[in-house]
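Course assignment 3, question 2. Fill in each field.
Student: A.L.
Task: Predict the tertiary structure for the chain below.
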Amino acid sequence: MKTTKIAILGKGNVGGALARGLARTYSHVQTVGNDKTAQRQAATQAEVVILAVPFPALDDVVKNLGAALDGKVVVDTTNALDANMNLALGYSTSGAEELQKKLPRARVVKAFNTVFAQHMDSGKVGSTPLTAFVSGDDAAAKQTVVTLAKDLGFEAVDTGPLKNARLLEPLAYLNIQLGYVLGLGTQIGFKLVRE
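Answer field:
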């Protein structure tokens, strides 16, 4: 078992799936819900903090945790959607970039947001590995998240700097549109094919 200490904030579908998947490989995976004290304790002890909360909850998490996230790898799994399930931010910024501005001493990485939660614990749809797109400005933090994704079962791809989350968040929105609005269901996902 790997000993990286991981805190997952959020016990919903995303947090639960990531916790199940990561617990196969990592011995220190802690999942906490809305309890602010538990969030602070988990974040303080962790090396990697995964934000698996709804996008509108990020400001409360940032306010609660603040300096507890300094120097940590902070994985933003959220999708920047408004109450009507439309993109809340456009192509001039992203939810991840705005999060990095609020946490200037954290090492924010965007990942896992383009995948339906039910596939996050295995990184696959059926037996087909999905691509985990990973963007961030800190190379070491990004590599940490690439490793997490591979350990889950994904084919992980470094998609460059955090500003490329401007592309990943609309890609996630497309996935949601395909699955729910256009009726393809959730047994779908993106895979980057290369020779």
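Instructor remarks: The mean pLDDT is 96. Strands lie at 2-9, 26-32, 48-51, 73-76, 107-110, 124-125, 128-129, 131-136, 155-158.
Grade: pending
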